[in-house]
Request: fold
Amino acid sequence: MPTFYYKAKKGLDRTEAGTIEAYDREQAIAQLIQNGLAPVEVSAQKQKINKTDSHKSAFKLNRRLGLRELNIFTQQLRTLIKSKVELLSSLRILYEQCDNLPLKEIIQDLYNTIKDGKTFSAALNKHPAFFPLLYVNIIRSAEASGRLDEALNEISNFLEKEQDLRIKISSALAYPALMLIVGAVTVFVLFSFVIPRLVGIFEDFQATLPLPTRILLGISSFFQRAWFMIIGFIVAAIFILRKQYLKEHSSIDWLKLHLPVLGNLNRKQSIARFSRTLGLLLHSGTPIFQSLQVAIPTLENNILIRQMESVPKDVMAGATLSESMKKVAYFEPFIIQMVKVGEEGGRLEEVLNEVADAFTRDSEAIIKIITSLIEPLVILCLGLVLGGIVMAMLLPIFQINMLIR
Reply:
């Protein structure tokens, strides 16, 4: 976590100076104000980075550790903590029974860091590629309240819902994706290797070949000459699209919100993820400003994130969350009204979870509709392409029969 140097007034005559840890300058200022100080100067300190540690961190970022591994680790740790096993002993048990080498190294580092006197949240914060900021903040709040087992249970439930949604999306799209890949490979092989071997059949054909057959032979000739270029083009296109997708300010984010059907699905998934994260953080006792700082990046869309950037500042200035969220064009009135009801009733985290559940159900319904439409469309398109190829090859034979008669 970044460290900020500050000078602040306490009362009329007293001036204090020191350092404070925060996610950004605005949060550092907010923490100083909460501590009864009037900030005069707040600036980020430059941190020295050990090159060896930097290489290690970069190496670990490439390790194959995902949501499934994080969920398993959390469930097992929760079970041990709930059974009254102390934290260090729990980590030692998890280390001994872990078969995943990258995860084993992380558990070992957690154990050593805590043994050196650091807190569990500080140990987790050393591995941001595996433990998200949400995870660290909930554990930090649990350390202050002494409810680590409850916090791990909340995190585990959250991760299970995220994992279930991803599995449903993956399983729903797996069959259409497989059909597309098999169909594309089949067409590629036909054009590149099969049809060129059949060209000799038409060499002695006296009449002019039908137009579909000539087009088919022309495409096949191109594929035969440049199949390696086609593969290179596809690989380059995938690389460019992936790079564009990962860019911070990408036009793909706009498409993700405005594509027919898919745009609505992406928006609902983003809002559900944001609402569930914010509700979980608030329930764990994290202050709303800090909760918003953690929850906003989970929208995973730069357009939504930019529109939400002013919300924490408005909340710190005294505005309600519902009033601040009115500035976000992609948040429909239903969400704003639900948040307002939660604020007025003093159960904001419950309402946010209800919003997340509602939008998750809507997302699942849209996914079912999409998959029910994709499968017949893929079959229809592949049938038309393959049927067209067969017809183009058979037309000259039909023409020969007509000439013989």
About this structure: Strands lie at 3-10, 14-21, 38-44. The mean pLDDT is 81.
